[in-house]
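Figure 3 (text version): structure tokens given as input.
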């Protein structure tokens, strides 16, 4: 198929200018397929993951249809998390840079609702929101759908996983009959087909083939390490490869904070990003990362939904992700805009079998590497400094510096070689003792036997969940909630509340056992305290709830 250009898509000149400013040269595969169909007014089901350009795929034709003269709400996009809502709103704002009079408003939980109400009253043409907060505004009567001509469901499968099916259906049922419904999803479960059948009119299906979903320009490595050596190995990789910008992923907020502290203590320019940060803190951290003031961004998966930086040269999986799809999302943060990227994974013990499963899922190659020795790091750092010195010799007048050196050599009993070696040593920093006393074996993931996968994929009993994805096992803990079937609460309501308030992916929640007056729900042990804390003031279907750790196993 011939490559299509943006200027062949009959776009508004103002949109074309914005697209050019953003550095897009030609549409991505999903954009090339989806934009023409959406501009025809057709309903669409798009299968695409993060990093494929899907926001612009629905954002460009959406903006083409917006009438800036009308201050009425004309389009709404639903997103599963606040981070994604913010990211989508930012992307559409960039696209509307030259389209004056268009206002885009993200609405999500955790932000002052009064401010959102004021923004809606002042006149907003496009709302980007999470289902729960959109429902809040519907109940308050602060959002009006009568002029809405387009609705976008972004990452629809993730919204289903988080228990938002009923909210999605309620919102869609309140929208005008004559509208365009565009849905994007990484996977196509049966529930997506049911939504399409119920709320779309003869939708056209566009999809990115699998090979385009796996980020081919990212070279992927893994290192087997001992827990006590993870920080040291991480630092050696940073020193060896010296990425300009890098994103480091951890599975918990606690781990993010601990790693940031460790990296800062070693002199690296690192900042953390996770769900506990207030919006002003998130904005500060992301601004520092985008400007290069912060070179290393340490983040959880949920927080990383809002990361949209093209110059990331390397991704580090400090912790192996708990979901296969998250690995794809993570490494998709590098190798963007035609650039090449690198991904490094640190695996401990039986995590290597999890990484093997990820490799099979991605249909890619994750290459084993030996842990670099201090000598390896020293040589690489020295070579880098000497290359920079060579460039300085070629491009700079060093007469004054040469005179200073000559004077010093004449005054003291040093050679130029002694002085050069000393300056190189100062540039490289102090040498450290090699604390990694034992090299881990280097072995290909393809050569592993099935040891470690017995008894189920996660090494424990399966969760008794109403949905797929609950992990079960010793890494889960049961929470008690003081509402049940008698309050007309469904498992999806509880799942959506926990995922929405805490920010953990719905897939990580295990079994939900409902009784007449109470419910037990399994959550990851490491996140249990945080979930109890954030649910303290939460409501489920308008009912205040009390949650605590259960006394049962």
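Below: residues designed for each position.
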């Amino acid at each position: 198929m011939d490559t299509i250009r943006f200027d062949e898509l009959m776009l508004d000149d103002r949109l074309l200018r914005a697209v050019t400013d953003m550095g897009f040269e030609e549409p991505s595969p999903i954009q090339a397929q989806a934009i023409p169909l959406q501009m025809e007014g057709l309903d669409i089901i798009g299968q695409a993951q993060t990093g494929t350009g899907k926001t612009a795929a629905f954002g460009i034709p959406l903006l083409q249809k917006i009438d800036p003269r009308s201050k009425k709400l004309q389009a709404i996009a639903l997103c599963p998390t606040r981070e994604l809502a913010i990211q989508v709103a930012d992307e559409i704002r960039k696209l509307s840079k030259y389209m004056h009079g268009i206002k885009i408003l993200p609405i999500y939980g955790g932000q002052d609702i009064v401010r959102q109400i004021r923004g809606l009253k002042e006149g907003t043409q496009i709302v980007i929101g999470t289902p729960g907060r959109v429902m809040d505004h519907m109940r308050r009567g602060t959002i009006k759908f009568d002029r809405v001509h387009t609705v976008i469901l972004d990452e629809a499968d993730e919204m289903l996983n988080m228990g938002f099916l009923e909210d999605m259906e309620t919102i869609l049922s309140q929208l005008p009959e004559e509208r365009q419904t565009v849905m994007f999803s990484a996977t196509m479960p049966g529930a997506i087909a049911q939504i399409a059948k119920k709320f779309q009119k003869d939708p056209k299906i566009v999809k990115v083939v699998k090979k385009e979903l796996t980020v081919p320009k990212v070279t992927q490595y893994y290192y087997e390490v001992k827990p006590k050596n993870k920080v040291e190995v991480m630092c050696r990789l940073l020193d060896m490869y010296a990425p300009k910008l890098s994103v480091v992923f951890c599975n918990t907020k606690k781990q993010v904070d601990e790693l940031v502290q460790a990296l800062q203590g070693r002199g690296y320019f690192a900042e953390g990003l996770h769900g506990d940060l207030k919006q002003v803190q998130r904005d500060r951290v992301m601004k520092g990362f985008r400007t290069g003031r912060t070179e290393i961004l340490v983040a959880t998966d949920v927080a990383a939904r809002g990361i949209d930086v093209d110059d990331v040269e390397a991704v580090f999986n400090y912790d192996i992700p708990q979901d296969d799809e998250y690995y794809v999302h993570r490494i998709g943060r590098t190798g963007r805009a035609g650039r090449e990227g690198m991904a490094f994974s640190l695996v401990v013990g039986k995590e290597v079998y999890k990484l093997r499963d990820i490799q099979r899922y991605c249909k890619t190659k994750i290459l084993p590497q030996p842990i670099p020795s201090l000598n390896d790091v020293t040589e690489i750092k020295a070579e880098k400094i000497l290359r920079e010195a060579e460039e300085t010799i070629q491009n700079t007048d060093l007469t004054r510096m040469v005179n200073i050196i000559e004077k010093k050599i004449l005054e003291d009993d040093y050679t130029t070689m002694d002085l050069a070696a000393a300056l190189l040593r100062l540039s490289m920093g102090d040498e450290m003792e090699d604390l990694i006393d034992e090299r881990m074996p280097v072995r290909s993931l393809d050569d592993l036997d099935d040891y470690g996968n017995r008894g189920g994929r996660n090494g424990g009993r399966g969760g008794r969940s109403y949905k797929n994805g609950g992990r079960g096992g010793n890494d889960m803990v049961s929470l008690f909630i003081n509402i049940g079937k008698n309050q007309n609460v469904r498992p999806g309501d509880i799942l959506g509340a926990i995922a929405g308030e805490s920010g953990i992916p719905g897939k990580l929640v295990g079994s939900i056992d409902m009784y007449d007056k109470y419910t037990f729900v399994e959550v990851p042990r490491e996140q249990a305290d945080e979930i109890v804390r954030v649910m303290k003031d939460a409501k489920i279907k308008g009912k205040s709830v009390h949650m605590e750790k259960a006394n049962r196993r």
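Residues 202 and 407 are 83 Å apart (CA to CA).
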